[in-house]
């Protein structure tokens, strides 16, 4: 063969090598294995590897033709065509293994498997698990991991089950039934014992059973907004709250959101939306909240339809919201101020004219209470009769015997009992005072202030006027049977009421005395301020008109 012909053959040969089509690369598979165990691998694309000629396959480690995998069955790592055997794994066996299939028709395919071998001391590493089994049911079936189950099926091996490294007796199927997943959660290991070339090997796969919280889907409920309108001020920022409640612990199956004029929300100038989903304790209700923030409310926003919507696992819900201009607060404030002013005015007016109003309406009020009162007199008059100077004594006598009866009896229809006028001569004085005191509905006490021995009024022996005081005070203070009307006659002086007896001071503390305006014009008029106050304290309905008695 000449030189030119040889060169032509070499060029054509090199050209044919470079023009071969590239190989098809299949998805890489990865496995985490345990030291001392064995592993049988067949690429996932092959359903029955025995039908494919062994000669088509060549195996390499780490994509290097230098580390060619032997087909000798005596080797710890070897292949039978497309099947790869790892017998009694060592940590140094970790790496990437490649199978190249050269089909007679000229096609080429690459299959990859990555193997990571963990040492025996690291057998509790979670990376060795074939995933988790999440369960919320009472009963659960645990399947043996596919690589282990496939090995047992090919080599007709035996299954053994372990729970948390403890042997489960009598369990020799490729699956395991857990009757109470809530109590039996843990790591379940399926071990296949198989034979190859008259030698026994073990392959295992572990899976963790965990109890998943029960998920309770229900119709979604919108809790905010509850109104169709929300007040806003133009030019002022506002936040719209869309809150929904879904089932128990539904997670991502509950998500609220806003849409504007029927279109899903998209960020733009002046608008922003934040969404937060939380699980409420202890009810486990899932609550999703979407907050739409409007930086400044514009006139256009009052014409915009905002929709709060949510889609749950089984249902959906929505509600619309529109903005309205907030009404001015000035009319509301003015109205409330007017009501407050009216209430204050009515209270002041009532306090100032309570006496006049009471006296005005008395004739129109029912007198049922009086009909049950059989006492003869409306008031018993008590006044001082000793230790008075001549002028004071005359003035007091005129007031008691003339002024008081002329107004209360003649003009107002009341019946008064006045000692010296209404007592019956010849009867026992002490019995008479006690009897007529009990027949009276009020006790009118006339305080004659400014006299020299006013403080000794209740300390003296029972003489004319003195016993009246003692009996009257007993009924008013001890038995509390009678209401007391105090009339101040004269000026108390700089000491005020300090020089009076303790019993009188106690009465004054309960009821302020009504001062007799002796020098005032119109003091004797029955509708003067003084007499109105006296009439206000007198019974509402006078006693029956007494028989005329002779005046003293």
Automatic annotation (TrEMBL):
<keyword id="KW-0520">NAD</keyword>
<dbReference type="InterPro" id="IPR036179">
    <property type="entry name" value="Ig-like_dom_sf"/>
</dbReference>
<dbReference type="GO" id="GO:0007165">
    <property type="term" value="P:signal transduction"/>
</dbReference>
<dbReference type="InterPro" id="IPR035897">
    <property type="entry name" value="Toll_tir_struct_dom_sf"/>
</dbReference>
<keyword id="KW-1015">Disulfide bond</keyword>
<feature type="domain" description="TIR">
    <location>
        <begin position="375"/>
        <end position="538"/>
    </location>
</feature>
<keyword id="KW-1133">Transmembrane helix</keyword>
<dbReference type="Pfam" id="PF01582">
    <property type="entry name" value="TIR"/>
</dbReference>
<feature type="domain" description="Ig-like">
    <location>
        <begin position="214"/>
        <end position="322"/>
    </location>
</feature>
<dbReference type="InterPro" id="IPR003599">
    <property type="entry name" value="Ig_sub"/>
</dbReference>
<protein>
    <submittedName>
        <fullName>Interleukin 1 receptor like 1</fullName>
    </submittedName>
</protein>
<keyword id="KW-0732">Signal</keyword>
<keyword id="KW-0812">Transmembrane</keyword>
<keyword id="KW-0472">Membrane</keyword>
<keyword id="KW-0378">Hydrolase</keyword>
<comment type="similarity">
    <text>Belongs to the interleukin-1 receptor family.</text>
</comment>
<dbReference type="InterPro" id="IPR007110">
    <property type="entry name" value="Ig-like_dom"/>
</dbReference>
<keyword id="KW-0393">Immunoglobulin domain</keyword>
<dbReference type="InterPro" id="IPR013783">
    <property type="entry name" value="Ig-like_fold"/>
</dbReference>
<dbReference type="InterPro" id="IPR015621">
    <property type="entry name" value="IL-1_rcpt_fam"/>
</dbReference>
<feature type="signal peptide">
    <location>
        <begin position="1"/>
        <end position="18"/>
    </location>
</feature>
<feature type="transmembrane region" description="Helical">
    <location>
        <begin position="339"/>
        <end position="361"/>
    </location>
</feature>
<keyword id="KW-0325">Glycoprotein</keyword>
<dbReference type="GO" id="GO:0016787">
    <property type="term" value="F:hydrolase activity"/>
</dbReference>
<dbReference type="InterPro" id="IPR000157">
    <property type="entry name" value="TIR_dom"/>
</dbReference>
């Amino acid at each position: 063969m000449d030189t030119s012909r040889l060169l032509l053959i070499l060029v054509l040969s090199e050209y044919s090598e470079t023009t071969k089509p590239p190989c098809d690369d299949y998805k890489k598979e990865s496995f985490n294995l345990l030291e001392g165990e064995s592993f049988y691998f067949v690429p996932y694309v092959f359903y029955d590897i025995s039908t494919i000629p062994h000669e088509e396959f060549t195996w390499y480690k780490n994509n290097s033709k230098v580390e060619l995998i032997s087909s000798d069955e005596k080797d710890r790592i070897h292949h039978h065509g497309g099947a790869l055997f790892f017998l009694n794994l060592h940590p140094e066996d970790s790496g990437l293994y490649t199978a190249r299939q050269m089909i007679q028709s000229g096609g080429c395919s690459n299959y990859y498997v990555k193997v990571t071998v963990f040492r025996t001391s690291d057998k509790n590493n979670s990376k060795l698990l074939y995933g988790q089994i999440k369960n919320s049911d009472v009963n659960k079936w645990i399947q043996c991991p596919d690589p282990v189950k496939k090995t047992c099926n090919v080599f007709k091996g035996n299954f053994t089950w372990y729970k948390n490294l403890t042997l489960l007796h009598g369990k020799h199927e490729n699956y395991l039934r857990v009757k109470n997943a809530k109590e039996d959660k843990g790591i379940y290991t399926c071990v296949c014992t198989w034979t190859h070339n008259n030698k026994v090997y073990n392959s295992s796969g572990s899976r963790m059973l965990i109890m998943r919280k029960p998920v309770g889907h229900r119709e979604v409920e919108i809790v905010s907004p509850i109104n169709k309108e929300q007040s806003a001020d133009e030019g002022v920022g506002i936040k719209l709250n869309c809150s929904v409640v879904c089932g128990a612990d539904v997670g991502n199956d509950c998500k609220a959101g806003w849409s504007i004029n029927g279109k899903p929300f998209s960020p733009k100038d002046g608008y922003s939306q934040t969404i937060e989903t939380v699980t409420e304790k202890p009810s486990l209700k899932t609550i999703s909240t979407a907050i739409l923030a409007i930086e400044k409310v514009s006139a256009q926003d009052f014409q915009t339809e905002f929709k709060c919507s949510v889609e749950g696992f089984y249902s959906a819900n929505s509600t619309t919201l529109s903005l309205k201009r907030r009404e001015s607060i000035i009319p509301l404030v003015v109205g409330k101020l007017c009501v407050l002013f009216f209430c204050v005015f009515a209270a002041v007016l009532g306090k100032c004219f309570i006496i006049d109003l009471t006296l005005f309406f008395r004739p129109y009020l029912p007198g049922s209470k009086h009909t049950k009162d059989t006492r003869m007199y409306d008031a018993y008059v008590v006044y001082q009769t000793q230790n008075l100077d001549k002028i004071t004594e005359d003035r007091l006598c005129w007031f008691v015997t003339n002024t008081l009866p002329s107004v209360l009896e003649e003009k107002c229809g009341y019946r008064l009992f006045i000692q010296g006028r209404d007592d019956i001569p010849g009867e026992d004085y002490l019995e008479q005072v006690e009897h007529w005191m009990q027949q009276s509905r009020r006790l009118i006490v006339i305080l004659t202030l400014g006299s020299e021995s006013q403080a000794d009024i209740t300390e003296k022996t029972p003489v004319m006027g003195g016993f009246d005081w003692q009996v009257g005070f007993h009924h008013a203070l001890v038995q509390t049977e009678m209401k007391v009307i105090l009339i101040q006659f004269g000026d108390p002086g700089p000491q005020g009421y300090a020089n009076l007896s303790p019993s009188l001071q106690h009465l004054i503390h309960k009821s302020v005395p009504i001062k007799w305006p002796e020098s005032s014009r119109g003091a004797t008029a029955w509708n003067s301020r003084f007499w109105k106050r006296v009439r206000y304290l007198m019974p509402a309905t006078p006693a029956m008109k007494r028989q005329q008695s002779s005046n003293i």
